[in-house]
């Protein structure tokens, strides 16, 4: 039961109701009362909210029998709390069919057999409702203050659960993506208790059941509701604090307590992660040791990475090198923002590594550049795929955080190919650096790129002679580029899209948002400039490579971003 909740039964015990009688709905005495209204109109439904208690002189009872019953049905359908009738002003009795309908739906009808002051009744009930809510809010505020003091003295979330249970007298639970789940009191072996212990929290988070993570989630159980409040750190859902509530009304009363507990859990999680980051910075020498060639064997590398030693054919696994950089999105000075981000990102990265059940090492090269090395045991092909999938999820979370929290800064991330040995890390980071450079020059690839998905860009980036690339671009696209300077006909954009659409003129026109005749005119001009046919293998490959080289050399998008 919601402690702030006023029920019909409570109202009947008020001094002003000593001369009132309950004419119908005896089994509805536990109906909650949210507010009181004096209403005399017949079409009442649009003005009634759930749990409203209606006071009336019964003027509507002078209508036809059907109209009288329709009026009461409106109250019942709107889930009003009940009805208070006054006899002696508009009516002399309550029709039996009205009382019978109310009784059938356990809808309380309270009758005063003489005129009463409605103003005194509304003032009395409203004062009672407001006072109860104020008392409950004071208790919730007191809990929040004690919780704040508790988090200054303890670092374990179990202390939060104990205080939450002590104030609410409800079963408390804590589900985490970073550490073992907790409960207070400890769960027993009953069916509902087992369900709480085995709640698939990680799968629920992956399926997006918590939405943006800023509101509570209520799960219907056999004997009540499990109310879960997400624990957010750096915009990432890392855990949830939960309470068992009796019903929706009880859940509403418990919500402020749960919100405070979730905030405390977030503070403790952040403190723990910062502590781990501080410790990790002192211990984490793996990446610089590998890059500077100071690691002599795979066993030494595995030891630095915290992996168990493997011997002979059993020494299998995979490693994935990732380079990250922050850059300004505009000309303004971002020094302070970048400095703050450089403190937060390593903490967030280590948190995300644990969230996605990965293992890895960090190296912060500068305030805007971080290197990340993920590693996993197992068959190299399987371990590599697992690392690629985990890295993609981790980087998507990181990109979302930067978009929401780091205004004015842009994140870029690039990964090399998965490697079977940690000693291959230098080559992997060279690939990541090349992929990062390609990402800067070719915006349409997006802010996250993987070296093994770059295709011909790998080859083009590796060509050391820039003049050779420029000559290749001029040979294949020179006349088009010259024509665009003179006429701005968007021929290069049209050619690029036409090849991307595999020669489909209909799809090309649709994606360029132009009329088909406009496309035909452009295609005729392109034919005059570079000849036909575009889709012959040698011609097509040459044009596509030249377009890619043009994007790579100029760092410009061709037309619209597709």
From TrEMBL:
Pfam families for this protein: GGDEF_2, HTH_30, PucR
Domain annotation Purine catabolism PurC-like: ranges: 10-129
CdaR GGDEF-like domain residues: 309-438
Residue ranges constituting the PucR C-terminal helix-turn-helix domain according to the UniProt record: 491-549
PANTHER family the record matches: CARBOHYDRATE DIACID REGULATOR, PUCR FAMILY TRANSCRIPTIONAL REGULATOR
Protein family membership: Belongs to the CdaR family.
Name of the protein in question: Polyketide synthase regulator
Organism: Paenibacillus herberti
Lineage: Bacteria, Bacillati, Bacillota, Bacilli, Bacillales
């Amino acid at each position: 039961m919601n402690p702030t909740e006023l029920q019909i039964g409570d109202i009947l015990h008020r001094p002003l109701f000593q001369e009132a009688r309950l004419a119908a709905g005896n089994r509805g005495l536990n109906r909650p009362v949210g507010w009181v209204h004096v209403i005399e109109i017949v079409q009442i439904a649009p003005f009634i909210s759930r749990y409203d208690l209606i006071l009336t002189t019964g003027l509507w009872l002078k209508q036809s029998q059907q109209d009288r019953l329709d009026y009461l049905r409106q109250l019942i359908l709107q889930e009003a709390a009940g009805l208070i009738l006054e006899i002696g002003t508009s009516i002399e009795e309550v029709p039996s069919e009205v009382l019978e309908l109310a009784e059938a739906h356990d809808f309380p009808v309270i009758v005063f057999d003489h005129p009463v002051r409605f103003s005194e009744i509304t003032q009395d009930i409203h004062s009672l409702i407001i006072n109860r809510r104020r008392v409950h809010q004071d208790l919730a505020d007191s809990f929040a203050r004690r919780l704040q003091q508790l988090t200054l003295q303890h670092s374990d979330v179990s202390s939060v659960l104990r205080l939450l249970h002590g104030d609410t007298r409800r079963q408390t639970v804590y589900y985490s993506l970073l550490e073992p789940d907790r409960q207070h009191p400890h769960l027993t072996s009953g069916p509902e208790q087992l369900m709480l212990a085995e709640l698939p929290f990680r799968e629920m988070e992956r399926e997006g059941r918590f939405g943006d993570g800023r509101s509570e989630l209520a799960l219907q159980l056999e004997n009540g509701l499990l109310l879960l409040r997400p624990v957010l750190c750096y915009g990432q859902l890392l855990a949830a604090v939960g309470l068992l509530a009796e019903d929706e009304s009880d859940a509403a009363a418990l919500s402020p307590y749960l919100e405070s507990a979730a905030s405390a859990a977030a503070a403790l999680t952040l403190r723990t992660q910062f502590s781990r980051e501080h410790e990790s910075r002192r211990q984490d020498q793996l990446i610089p040791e590998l890059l500077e060639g100071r690691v002599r064997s795979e066993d030494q590398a595995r030891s630095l990475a915290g992996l168990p030693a493997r011997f002979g054919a059993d020494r299998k696994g995979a490693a994935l090198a990732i380079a990250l950089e922050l850059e300004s999105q505009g000309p303004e000075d971002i020094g302070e923002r970048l400095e703050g981000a450089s403190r937060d990102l390593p903490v967030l990265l280590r948190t995300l590594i644990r969230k996605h059940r990965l293992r890895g090492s960090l190296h912060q090269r500068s305030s805007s550049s971080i290197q990340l090395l993920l590693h996993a045991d197992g068959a190299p092909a399987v371990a590599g795929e697992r690392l690629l999938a985990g890295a993609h999820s981790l980087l998507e979370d990181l990109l979302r955080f930067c978009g929401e929290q780091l205004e004015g800064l842009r994140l870029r991330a690039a990964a090399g190919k998965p490697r079977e040995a940690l000693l291959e890390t230098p080559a992997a980071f060279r690939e990541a650096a090349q992929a990062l450079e390609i990402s800067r020059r070719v915006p349409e690839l997006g802010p996250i790129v993987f070296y093994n998905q770059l295709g011909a860009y790998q080859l083009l980036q590796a060509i050391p002679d820039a003049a050779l690339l420029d000559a290749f671009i001029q040979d294949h696209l020179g006349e088009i580029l010259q024509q665009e300077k003179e006429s701005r006909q968007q021929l290069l954009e049209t050619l690029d899209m036409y090849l991307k659409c595999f020669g489909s003129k209909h799809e090309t026109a649709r994606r360029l948002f132009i009329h088909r005749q406009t496309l035909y005119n452009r295609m005729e001009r392109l034919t005059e400039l570079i000849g036909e046919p575009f889709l012959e293998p040698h011609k097509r490959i040459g044009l596509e490579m030249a377009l890619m080289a043009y994007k790579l050399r100029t760092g410009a998008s061709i037309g619209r971003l597709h």
